Every structure is written in structure tokens, then in C-alpha cells.
């Protein structure tokens, strides 16, 4: 790596332009990571492990790459700072605290059964990591390029992906169920203040160190950063593809022994007058009332899930219409089944395996509210709409929402309005 840096002056405008570009690329990465990891919230345990295990290979490569970068950097604060990061990655003298070991401890604490092959790194990702190392150590590679590729790539870009992965990971039903037993040490270091401080210090040092480099160093720094961005996008793309690939055995495995099966019929229908219909179903037929908004009411219909929606005035006969619910529009009428999480995930896999398209793909609705659930919509060949749900807590299918300060029932509309105004 070239370290004979010329003392030619560097314009502050060039550096500001680079940070503007870097910030824009980072925002794009945040959006990409958020979309990429959305499926984690509803992923089955085997798919979850498939995704998480594949990150492990980077932890080994990163340590060696940082050591190579340090060895080829000129003396200075950047070199010393990266040496501190390397010391930290290696456990600060305690092998049990080395970050690859902490990640192994995390994977083991998940308690998800898996085969040895699921721990083997993807060939495509090993090729990416080898290519990055080759670029880092190439005879013509400059210090600025190396800092962009592995300094910013490891401490900035990687942290964005890990932070978004963690955000979705902690919402996964399996993880929430076993949260207390899971070893979170690795994540506490990589998505908390510890890693944020590293990233901010690296950014400050880049500003200082670049000032002593030649005028071409900004271009080299940018090139390294862009190469890192592209590599990370491909790295996680390969992992996502493997973790979401069709698994014919998923549906056959079914729910493990000890997990209660759920098969609750769900029907959503339109009515001409919501309150008249409520009186009929509750007072005349004896249904229990659950959540409600200005245009729908959830009903406990002798253990089954009936939702009545206010039909628009222009609706004719039994024509389908769209009904607003918590920021979404659902087609009414529709029917389906409320399942447990594992059976719901298996059904989603079955639908994907058959190549059948979703009208509304699997996602989580009413997040962090009573009644939070996963949902997916599709049409049968005749155009009939079907919805399949899995509630975070099945006891909350008909749960109402209470305002803590008044203990009075509060509709979802009011809750959403308050959230939007906050």
C-alpha cells in the first residue's frame, strides 16, 4: 500500500463534498437494510438461524483485514485508533471476549436446532471477502482507499446493517419468547454507544488525516467507500436470498410438540350501518365486542374472529370495497384463518413454494399494540380475498386498548392520531 503521501494542500470543499456524498449513501443504505431485514420479524427459527449464522464469517475476516490495514498505514493517530479497534475486536487480551467468540455465544444461546452445513459460509460471500482483502493489499492501493474500504466499511457501513438487523430481530416472536436466555453481549457492543463512538471518532480522524494527504486521496477514499458499500449490499443480498429460499420441508415439519395449535376462523364482511350491525351481532346473537374504529368492529363470534366493516354509501349489493385500517386498506369481504406463528410461517413458505403471488405480502401490523399480528393477503383463482393472521399473543385477538390515564376504552383511530402528533 502506498504510504508516501505528498504534502499538497487539500481543499476543505473537497472533504465537505465527500461527507455530503457519504451521508447520502448512508441514508440509502439505511433504507436498503430496513427493507432487506423486514422479513426477520416473521421469520421461522430455522430461517432466522440461516440469516444470523452467515454473518459470522465476516467477524474473522474483519480482524485480519484491520491488522493488514494497520500494518500498511503510516504512523499517526489513524493507525493508533485502528489498533485500538483491533485490540477491542480481539477481546482486549481476553479470548473469551473476542468478538467472533461473542457472536458464537449469541448463536448458541438462541437454542435453534441446525445442521453443520448451516454454519458454513456461502461461497459467494467468501469470494467477496477475498476480493476485498486482495483490493486492500494490492500494490497500488493507497492508505485513503484502505480507510474507505475497511475503516469506513467496517465501522460505518457494517454498523448500519447490524443496527437495522437488530431492530427487526428483537421483534421476531421466537426471539421475544426466549429473550431472557439469549446472550446479547455482541449486540450491546455493536448497536450501542460503544460502536457509535467508534464511528464518530473515525469520521473525525479521517478529516484530520486526509488534510495531510495528496489531492487524490479524496477520490481514493470515495472509491474505497463505494467498493465497501457495493460489497456489503451483495454480501447481505446473498444471505437474504439463502435465508428466504423455498424450503419444502418447512410445512412438513409443522409445529413442534408442546406448541398449541390454533385454527380460528376469520371473516370480514361489509355492513350498511355499523352500529345497527353491532347491536344485531352482540345483543341478538351474543357476540363479544373487541377493538373498534370509526369504520370497523372486531367481534368474538363464539370463539371465531368476525370483523364488520362499514360499507361505503356507494356500495351496491355484495360488491367488494376497500376499508381503511391502521394505515392500510383491506379488501372486504375476505376470510381466512388465525394460526400460531409457526403454522403461519409454514403456510407462507408453502404459498411461496407454489409460486403464488401475495396481494399483500407477509408483514407485521399494529406493532407494539395489543392485538399486534402478522398478516398476509392473497386472492384465490376466482378473486376471493383471503387473509391469514398470527397474533403475537393469541389472547389479544379481541383485546381492547385502554388509555392508562383514564382507563376508558379508546379506539385505534385516536391512538394513531396521538402517535402521528407525537
TrEMBL record:
Positions of the VOC domain: 263-391
A Pfam entry, by short name: Haem_oxygenas_2
InterPro entries: Glyas_Bleomycin-R_OHBP_Dase, Glyas_Fos-R_dOase_dom, Haem_Oase-like_multi-hlx, VOC_core
Source superkingdom: Bacteria
Protein name: VOC domain-containing protein
Naturally occurring in which organism (per UniProt): Lysobacter enzymogenes
